Amino acid sequence: MLMRTDPFREMDRIVQQLSGASGTWSKPSVMPMDAYRQGDVYVIAFDLPGVSTEAIDIDVERNMLTVKAERRPTGKSDGVQMELSERPLGVFSRQIMLADTLDTERIEADYDAGVLTLRIPIAERAKPRKITIGGESDRKQISA
């Protein structure tokens, strides 16, 4: 139900992790995610530790889901000298092409413990259904 749009995105993510590059608005870093189906709902979970809910932006345009987030450095006061800085800062983004069978009008978003979870229900029209077969007695006779 989910389609990847960029086959080189994972390679970019690995290179950014190894180089320690921070994401910018023009070239954001990739955020890790999991996607799975749970009954009649698709669930997508994004790792965004240390990001406030105000810094997360979720958009859907047609079938393209875009999640952007920004982690800024913590406020430093005078007299504080950074000894080690390994946590990635900057802009993170992920775009996912959603299948037509998902109901993008009813997406639910929750954010807990640094994980953004989106729940996208499967559209009613895409769910399996039984088709009844009418018998001979159900047909009306037309006399000529």
Q: Count of helical segments?
A: 1
Elements, N to C (H/E)? EHEEEEEEEE
**Which structural class do the helices and strands define?**
mainly beta
Mean pLDDT: 81
Shape: elongated
Describe the biggest sheet? 5 strands, mixed
Task: Tell me how many strands there are.
Answer: 9
- Weakly predicted, low-confidence segments: none
Question: What is the straight-line distance between the termini?
Answer: 52 Å
Strand content: 35-45%
Q: In percent, how helical is the residue content?
A: under 10%
The Rg value, from CA coordinates, equals 23 Å
Family: Belongs to the small heat shock protein (HSP20) family.
Organism: Streptomyces caledonius
Domain SHSP: 24-136
Protein name: Hsp20/alpha crystallin family protein
In words, what does this structure look like?
With 144 residues, this protein is mainly β. The chain has 1 helix and 9 strands, in the order E-H-E-E-E-E-E-E-E-E. It has one helix at residues 9-19; strands spanning 2-3, 29-30, 33-38, 41-47, 56-61, 64-71, 90-98, 108-112, 115-121. It is elongated, with a radius of gyration of 23 Å. 12% of the residues are buried. Residues 24-136 form the SHSP domain. This is Hsp20/alpha crystallin family protein. Belongs to the small heat shock protein (HSP20) family.
Topology:
Layout: E1 2-3, H1 9-19, E2 29-30, E3 33-38, E4 41-47, E5 56-61, E6 64-71, E7 90-98, E8 108-112, E9 115-121
Parallel strand pairs: 2-7
Antiparallel strand pairs: 1-7, 3-4, 4-9, 5-6, 6-7, 8-9
In short, what is this structure?
The chain is mainly β and 144 residues long. The protein is built from one helix and nine strands. Belongs to the small heat shock protein (HSP20) family.
